[in-house]
Design brief:
This protein has 370 residues and is an alpha/beta fold. The protein contains 8 helices and 21 strands. The protein folds into 2 domains: 197 residues, FAD/NAD(P)-binding domain (3-Layer(bba) Sandwich); 107 residues, FAD/NAD(P)-binding domain (3-Layer(bba) Sandwich), CATH 3.50.50.60. Strands 3, 4, 7, 8, 9, 10 and 21 form a 7-stranded mixed sheet that branches. The chain has a 5-stranded parallel sheet with strand order 12-19-13-14-15. Strands 16-17-18 form a 3-stranded antiparallel sheet, with no helix packed on it.
Length: 370
């Protein structure tokens, strides 16, 4: 991996001191990440109110609740905040979304020198807060969208809302092999060629997978990498015929058939330097030298709590209503970002959907007297 990119740990150390300011020590020395998490909810008091109080007090019904604080959710919060809707954001298990696990982002408009992924999301968060967005640490466990007000339940309380934007994102599927987690997010293991491919200019890389997504990743990487090894557990690709033919015909791409990734190799100082694979038929092992490992075995949309109330496809992605990218079959409920987009999965497209969802929610609320 290119030098200067560092893996950031989400682990907080033992001490939190609360007064007029907050002091944090982190086990990895990453004060920025911990400050983001703390600012995102660990030190902020939860919005008060128990379930019974919410039902009895109309003032406790939120105008708009945004579930998720990635690029889609925070952009929606900026627009909803500027519309004086005082949005409440539920942060989930990864405040800031997937971009907080990356370092340099070079393809987000407006930053000719690139921008650190954490910094980009922190900027978005501050912008949303400037316009009145409120943040609450929590994870939605279930919802009831059968009527107004809409109900969302966390482990601590029930939240009532007139409108909801679901922007929960999607998580990349990982294999769980040794070294994968250790080198993810800045030291050689990644899940996005579009995001990180340019960092591997004139280097050898591997792509793990055999479907259309893996082929697309491999082809994109040929623009930068010296060679691309496509690791697949079978002896034929699962990709569409045209995609498979195009991939295998490329002079920079070589397949590693019947191969199963068993370990990512490297060092904390230099990052990834290879992968270990096992032959699916003989069990024999070998090492493939490389500097980058691109996992392309799919994504899992974070939509389980909403799957009964909203339409989803066979993979669990939320389905917008006909003629819209963000409206759903439930009046007042909108979707944005990777939880409803399995094609592009980019920060900028997620931000665009967040903008759309907030504008639609504002219009819906105005039409219904909010």
């Amino acid at each position: 991996m290119a030098s200067g990119r560092t893996l950031r740990s989400l682990t907080l150390a033992a001490t939190f001191t609360f007064s007029a300011t907050v002091q944090i020590e982190t086990s990895a020395g990453d004060h920025r990440k911990s400050a983001f998490l703390l600012h995102s909810g660990f030190a902020l008091p939860a919005v008060s109110g128990l379930s019974g109080e919410l039902h009895s007090m109309s003032s406790s019904i939120e105008n708009i609740v945004i579930v998720g604080t990635g690029s889609a959710g925070l952009t929606a919060a900026v627009y909803a905040g500027r519309a004086n809707l005082s949005p409440l954001l539920i942060e989930g298990t990864l405040p800031g979304g997937q971009l907080t696990t990356t370092s340099e982002v070079e393809n987000f408009p407006g930053f000719p020198e690139g921008i650190d992924g954490f910094q980009l999301m922190d900027n978005l968060r501050k912008q949303a807060a400037k316009f009145g967005a409120r943040f609450e640490q929590g994870r939605i466990g279930s919802v009831d969208f059968s009527g107004q007000p809409l109900k969302l339940r966390t482990g601590e309380r029930e939240i009532l809302a007139r409108s909801v934007i679901v922007a929960t994102g999607a998580s990349p599927r990982m294999m769980g092999v040794p070294g994968e987690k250790e080198y993810f997010g800045g030291k050689g293991v990644t899940t996005c060629a579009t995001c990180d491919g340019a960092f591997y200019r004139n280097m050898d890389v591997v792509v793990v997978g055999g479907g259309d997504s893996a082929c697309e990743e491999a082809l994109f990487l040929t623009r930068f990498a010296s060679s691309v090894t496509l690791i697949h557990r079978r002896d034929t690709l699962r990709a569409s015929r045209i995609m498979a033919e195009r991939t295998l015909a490329h002079p920079k791409i070589r397949p590693a058939w019947n191969s199963i990734l068993t370990e990512v190799l490297g060092s904390p100082e230099a990052g990834v330097n290879g992968v270990r694979v096992k032959d699916a038929k003989t069990g024999a092992g070998r090492v493939i030298p490389c500097k980058g490992v691109f996992m392309a075995i799919g994504h899992v949309p974070n939509t389980e709590p909403f799957a009964q109330a909203l339409d989803v496809d066979a993979s669990g992605y939320l389905l917008p209503a006909g003629g819209s990218q963000v409206k759903t079959k439930v009046p007042g409920v909108f979707v944005a970002g990777d939880c409803a987009d399995h094609i592009y999965r980019q920060a900028i497209t997620a931000a665009g959907m967040g903008c759309q969802a907030a504008i639609e929610a504002e219009r819906w609320l105005a039409e219904h007297g909010a």
